[in-house]
Amino acid sequence: MKKVLILGVNGFIGHHLSKRILETTDWDVYGMDMQNDRLGDLINHPRMHFFEGDITINKEWVEYHIRKCDVILPLVAIATPATYVQQPLKVFELDFEANLPIVRSAMKYKKHLVFPSTSEVYGMCEDAEFDPATSNLVYGPINKPRWIYACSKQLMDRVIWGYGMEGLRFTLFRPFNWIGPGLDSIYTPKEGSSRVVTQFLGHIVRGEPINLVDGGEQKRAFTYIDDGIDALMGIIDNQNGIANGKIYNIGNPKNNHSVRDLANQMLEIARSIPEYAKTADAVSIVETTSGAYYGEGYQDVQNRVPAIDNTMAELHWQPTTNMTDALKNIFEAYREDVEKARHLVDQE
Length: 348
What we know:
Keywords: NAD. Pfam families: Epimerase. InterPro entries: Arna-like_SDR_e, Epimerase_deHydtase, Lipid_A_modif_metabolic_enz, NAD(P)-bd_dom_sf. This protein is α/β, with parallel strands linked by helices. It is about 40% helix and about 15% strand. Helix 6 links the parallel strand 5 (about 110-115) and strand 6. Helix 4 (about 90-95) packs parallel to helix 6. It starts with a strand and ends with a helix.
């Protein structure tokens, strides 16, 4: 019976992972976050032990629970491109500096650290598929602060690997554009504040234009959250120590679509669902530049496809949700929120 510590338990991955653990295992979840709105009824589950707190403030609670638990997942991070460009130091301070003591405590107490790396670490790598063992990590110049997130995550990966050489049990996982209900708030109209699927969903709900940055030709391999959680559960379970010292891409190469394709697919689905159809008909697609949308410090990646051979073989895993079903599931999950979102916008 494992004790799993999830820091950032109210986040996108955190709340989906908690739900899966509590529904399918006898493990206990010890979770910290500054809010609990996504957790819903999970907060009252007898094996959910929630603490409202901040990893940068409640350091004694964090260290105590690292000592107490078996598996440590520090999921607290800023992962929105607008913040990389506008507040790069804030990204570094949280994503690297605040997480470093957690890594050191996992080493000190000999725990299994399951750390979220990111597909962003590959940067502008030109490989057809990004391989965790062989692909080069390629970033733009210093005057493009967009890369501070990738750099912070890469440095943490290297520090964790270094601790691994001295005995730390760790697994790094790299999510490739995980999407699903609860990714961000559809009530946030501020440009660049949320991830692309939620951004587009919000525009559709509000009948606003969808902005395609630099034409929307850049491609992403989208992964449905349930598939991602399947792989993550295999890592936490860690049968026979298979995941120790490993790096796993967790993504779906078959769902590789351009952002323009994503916008068109989402509009097509929205027009077929009564709650969304009226506002979807009002949505236009407009092109903008990355400089106008995110700021001058932005650079993008044209293709980002994961090599997942080792993930599939070692974790006995494969992604099964296609793009259409993933998007339909998201629209379905937010159907009851549509009127609230419209009312909210009416008051702005």
